[in-house]
Specification:
Order of helices and strands: EEEHHEEHEHEHEEHEEHEEEEHHHEHEH
Number of helices: 12
Distance between the termini: 16 Å
Oligomer: single chain
Structural class: alpha/beta
Length: 417
Amino acid sequence: MLFLGIDFGTSGARGIVINNREEIVTQVNSSFSDQNINDLAECWKNTLYLLLEKLPIDVRNEIKAISINGTSSTVLLCNSKGQPIEPPILYNDSRDITVLDDFKRIIPKHHLVNSSTSSLVKLLGWHQTKKIQSDSYFLHQADWLGFLLHGKLGISDYHNALKLGYDVENLCYPDWLKSLPINSILPKVLPPGTPIETVSNDIVKRFDFRKNCQVCTGTTDSIAAFLASGVKHPGEAVTSLGSTLVLKLLSNSRVEDISSGIYSHRLGNLWLTGGASNTGGAVLKHFFSDEELDELSQKLNINRRTNLDYYPLLKPGERFPINDSRLAPKLEPKPNNKVDFLQGLLENMAKIEALGYEKLQTLGAAPVTKVYTAGGGAKNKNWAKIRQYYLQVPVKISSQTEAAYGTALLAKQSQNR
């Protein structure tokens, strides 16, 4: 049997098919660049179908389950036929948070939904502007893409629904959310990777899928990337070394500190907690070209410390592990030797990473036992050695880093439900 995971990102989509041994059988990509991005929903639909067409027919014939991830808080409002009645709102599209003012006495003050980009703010915005009709459905991006394959509306997963206000601890909508005027449009929420329905007859005919191929609930892109790492035990963590520094730690306990951007996603009976710092690869690329980073990284003297005291930021403001919107970048003194300057930056980023995991543990998360690394910075072996010095735990490169692979694992796990 084969299992398909689909990842929808900001510029296109990727599909990865794995077998029972979790080996990659094939992978395909489809870009948004050839689509009409002025009609986002149609663009996503066309991209999804192009992606499926690129899979070899003999592979499609053997796919047993499909799962899809999308960007968190990217949402749509549809009619009873699943046709969007308003343009989708993207994950990073800020809305007027004053829409919450009428419900201040209802919505908990420090809840995750009190954000200009939350799913709930976007839904309440549609309510306020009277866009919601009696036959309307509210869907996240992954929900809608799944609907295109199985044909059932009004179903979501508890990863996507977290920023809608869903109570992931008690697995229900809280009373305060059910008292809001949008209660009737809230989707049914299931665990990620739960079989919903087999692919529709139209999909079977068009793409030669087997009739018993199951479409499952999905997840968000960041959690799919975490699942790809293979982390399974409390204390294991994944650091993503991209333009920013993102930490995710698997824990027995739920940890939250919304003021510092720390919240937890449910993973079965465990919790995925973490935060994101504004330091990271964007700072490095401000000072060095890719070629310089490769060349200078090989010259680092990892057996000595530079003792340079930096807080590498491009502009004032930090979220985690220090929550200070005015925190100033600290990048002086700058040595004449570029190797020393790079090493100083990497050392201090490693200190921030260590401080981040320390903060999560202080709040009650599991002690870190091992850190896997994803993102572009994962390839830098000397940086990994520097990080291991400060983290004091083994640092390894994730064997798989693609979100589509993590989503394929989710599809495979659905067979155990």
